[in-house]
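During the reporting period the student researcher (J.K.) took over the structure-prediction task from the postdoctoral fellow and processed the backlog of single-chain submissions. One of the processed entries is reproduced below for the supervisory committee.
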Amino acid sequence: MTCSDFSSTLLIYDKKEMVMSVNIAIITARGGSKRIPQKNIKEFLGTPIIAYSIKAAIDSGLFDEVMVSTDSEDIANIAGEYGAAIPFTRGTENSGDFASTADVLLEVLECYVNLGKTYTYLCCIYPTAPFVTPEKLCAAFSLLKDKDADAVIPVVPFSYPPLRGLVIEDSYLKMKWPENIGVRSQDLDTIFHDSGQFYFVRVEAFLNQRTLFCKKTIPMVLSQMEVQDIDNETDWKLAELKYRVIYGRENPLHDMD
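J.K. obtained the following structure tokens:
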């Protein structure tokens, strides 16, 4: 069953008719990866990489539902083997290159409303995030509640200050911000970037603001060793190397046997 098989509710519902649950983990995994074919189910140290995200969510004990949003039968089958729910497949309009993560999450929430279920908190976990652990998810959820925030996003500092960045103009190197040429790196502001692992948000805030970067977003700072963007084969090898350094070949948190 696809999400489009349901009649649209525009996320307007009678709460009296809904089953109110606390947390849902939504793992977004479309099938059309181009740079790394079958990226979301490619084996990472011998296990489909999506399994790490599923296992971390399940082992955290936080979620009433751990589901995978996908348009791929292969991804759905493997996700199901590792314990994820796939109650419906992703709609065509959210399966292309230009669909945003927020669009996918809105579709999922609407489909659950049509199934008679709503949630207070959601955690969007990317399928290529083997460094996500149950502890990180629990820490993020605690931050979200304790700080009365709209969202928690894991971030990591840039390894080199972007404010000392260079650009190429007419074949010559120039500083992007020449006013920083005499400023010591340690005196510049620390700038962070999204770790690309997960987002924990209050559903009400997400529905109202239609973004994962809500007004009251709290950072959870990670080390560079715990973060690796995976966009090509070199990134993949670096991620495996980091994983081995942190956990060894066998990580008890992700024992897939």
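The committee noted the following: The chain has one domain: 3-158+192-254.
J.K. will present the remaining backlog at the next meeting.
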